[in-house]
User: Which sequence fits this backbone?
């Protein structure tokens, strides 16, 4: 794929994402799901109304800014309500989220490109992200989760850009990486897992570096063939040659040959002091100053006290069971999407009948039209993605196990391939964003998986890209088939992402499992 078609593809992905998020944005003239909190909180900043917030305030600032801008734009005011505390149109408190969410597929594609410099991989990653349901739903309403994701992803993208540069330009991008990670945590505390993923891949890179740097470790960890090669080099070049062989595992990125390199190979160029400053002090500083406007508005609690209150709130939310909330879903239910949730459900007698702003749906059998906004992913994208992630885990394990079986000792390649680095990056960041939820005992929901599932999208995009580039026709056909199924699934389930009218039979056709309802 040349640059021209790559640019066309990226623009097309963005336009698709943008159109889907703005289409019928005012459809429901009410507060959908947690808009009862976040849209109200955003409006409270405009009306200077003090309130307690169970999360850091950044997303509510942004929603409030969107409301203010939207109120001054001379369109989008055909319907209004006073549910936020002021007379506002739904468009005013939703449009900024829709715009922000439209950029998430582009950022995912940018990360994919920086990881590998493969344009097809990047386009597929962006396309698959644009074809996911829960990101589409979350982007169309005044909710906060898209801000955790986009700021966390921007932190990772800026980090990759920093690794791709040197000296002042590297420092420049590292500052922005720290700002991105700080903003993610300033939206919700679980944004911290994006930052932890960056630290973990950095630690992994240093472990690999140290294994190849110390002679004693090298004798144990490297294969016999590599030791023989090192011995031959030592015989030919003396001690200096042996020293070079000891450093063979350290790769330096070279822009002149991007096809065989990745910025991840430069992770060991960052020392502990750089990491602590750029990805420690700067995020903490950004997180702290984010709180200033809120603490100026609501002076009930100081900086430390408000965090104690937030922690107390979450600890008292109750256990993770349907008895607490019908849509509670433990972390292990997320990857296979066994318990999505309805953000909005309403029935009407006909498609021309206006929907009630408040009140329960019509009795069973009376409603001939169903409007449902379901926070669920694209099933086949998620299921194929989990399979791709397991494939990457297996690929990493086999690279260690096969030499162990053959040579009876752990062996590490002298130089990791680009695909191995990508596998490490995706697996580590997926685990960093998923596994902390194992110990969480409060009621959690499927939208908490959004920070982890973006790496699943990258994993399936990587797998399909490798299939499409394969010499074997069967693998190329597999890549095309997977892509087609993901796109077809997105179109099939689109009505419940956008809240389009459905007959009861069409609705049941899309609810494949009872646990989905």
Assistant:
């Amino acid at each position: 794929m040349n640059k021209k078609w790559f640019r066309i593809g990226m623009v097309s992905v963005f336009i698709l994402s943008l159109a889907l998020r703005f289409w019928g944005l005012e459809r429901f003239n009410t507060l959908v799901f947690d808009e009862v909190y976040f849209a109200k909180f955003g409006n409270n900043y405009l009306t200077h109304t003090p309130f307690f917030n169970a999360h850091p305030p950044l997303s509510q600032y942004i929603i409030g800014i969107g409301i203010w801008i939207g109120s001054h734009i001379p369109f989008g005011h055909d319907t209004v309500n006073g549910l936020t505390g002021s007379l506002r149109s739904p468009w005013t408190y939703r449009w900024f989220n829709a715009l922000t969410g439209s950029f998430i597929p582009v950022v995912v594609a940018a990360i994919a490109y920086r990881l590998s410099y493969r344009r097809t991989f990047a386009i597929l990653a962006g396309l698959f992200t644009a074809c996911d349901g829960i990101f589409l739903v979350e982007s169309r309403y005044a909710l906060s989760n898209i801000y955790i994701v986009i700021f966390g992803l921007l932190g990772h993208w800026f980090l990759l850009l920093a690794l791709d540069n040197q000296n002042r330009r590297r420092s420049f991008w590292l500052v922005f990486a720290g700002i991105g990670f700080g903003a993610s945590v300033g939206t919700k505390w679980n944004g911290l897992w994006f930052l932890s993923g960056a630290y973990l891949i950095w630690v992994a890179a240093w472990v690999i570096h140290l294994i190849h740097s110390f002679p004693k470790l090298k004798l144990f960890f490297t294969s016999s063939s590599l030791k023989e090669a090192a011995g031959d080099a030592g015989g030919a070049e003396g001690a200096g040659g042996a020293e070079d062989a000891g450093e063979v595992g350290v790769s330096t990125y070279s822009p002149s040959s991007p096809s065989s390199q990745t910025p991840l190979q430069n992770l060991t160029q960052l020392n502990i002091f750089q990491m602590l400053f750029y990805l420690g002090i700067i995020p903490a500083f950004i997180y702290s100053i984010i709180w200033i406007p809120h603490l100026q508005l609501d002076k009930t609690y100081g900086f430390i006290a408000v965090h104690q209150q937030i922690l107390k709130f979450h600890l008292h939310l109750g256990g993770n069971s349907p008895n607490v909330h019908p849509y509670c879903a433990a972390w292990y239910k997320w990857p296979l999407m066994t318990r999505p949730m309805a953000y909005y459900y309403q029935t009407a007698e006909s498609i021309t009948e206006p929907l009630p702003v408040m009140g329960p749906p019509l009795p069973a059998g009376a409603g001939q039209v169903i409007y449902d906004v379901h926070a669920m992913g694209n099933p086949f994208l998620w299921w194929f993605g989990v399979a791709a992630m397991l494939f990457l885990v297996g690929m990493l394990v086999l690279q260690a196990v096969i030499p162990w079986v053959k040579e009876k000792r752990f062996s590490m390649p002298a130089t990791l391939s680009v695909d191995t680095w990508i596998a490490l990056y995706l697996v580590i960041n997926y685990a960093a964003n998923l596994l902390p939820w194992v110990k969480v005992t409060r009621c959690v929901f499927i939208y908490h998986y959004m920070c982890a599932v973006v790496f699943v999208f990258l994993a399936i995009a990587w797998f399909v890209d490798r299939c499409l580039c394969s010499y074997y026709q069967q693998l190329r056909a597999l890549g095309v088939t997977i892509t087609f199924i993901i796109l077809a699934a997105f179109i099939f389930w689109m009505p419940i992402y956008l809240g389009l009218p459905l007959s009861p039979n069409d609705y049941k056709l899309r609810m494949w499992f009872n646990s989905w309802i």
